[in-house]
Design brief:
Elements lengths: L12 H6 L2 E11 L8 E6 L5 E6 L7 H4 L3 E5 L5 E3 L2 E3 L2 E2 L1 E3 L6 E3 L14
Protein name: tRNA-binding protein
InterPro entries: CsaA, NA-bd_OB-fold, tRNA-bd_dom, Tyrosine-tRNA_ligase_regulator
Keywords: RNA-binding, tRNA-binding
């Protein structure tokens, strides 16, 4: 029998609304060969907010080629982090597939303006 999931820590609407989640389009990808867990280096266009970099562990589900041109959503106001020698400026959002290494990316179901803030 499975244990019930732990109750998540509550947060406030004010905390949530301080997080900037924006729509962007992946314009370039390459393998992050220095990462311990297989990952891609992504360059994502956020329109007026510029092109930002991210390292994402999404190789189990997506090829580098099929990611180019894809819309994604990402947290854009976290501080940058160095991941395997690569500056990761945004956190691309996805849902891990239980029991696998796959992550399904979150994305708008239609084209939206690049850099549009998720509401």
């Amino acid at each position: 029998m499975t244990e019930p999931a732990a109750t998540p820590t509550e947060t406030t609407a004010e905390d949530f609304f301080r997080t900037e989640i924006r729509a962007g389009r992946i314009v370039k990808t390459e393998p992050n060969t220095k990462a311990r867990v297989p990952a891609y280096k992504l360059w994502i266009d956020f329109g007026d907010h510029g092109v930002k970099q991210s390292s994402a562990q999404i190789t189990a589900r997506y090829s580098a080629e099929e990611l180019v041109g894809r819309m994604v959503v990402a947290v854009t106001n976290f501080p940058p982090r160095r991941i395997a020698g690569f500056k990761s400026e945004v956190l691309v959002l996805g849902v891990p597939v239980e029991g696998t290494d796959a992550v399904v990316l979150l994305a708008p179901d239609a084209d939206v303006p690049l850099g549009a803030r998720i509401a």
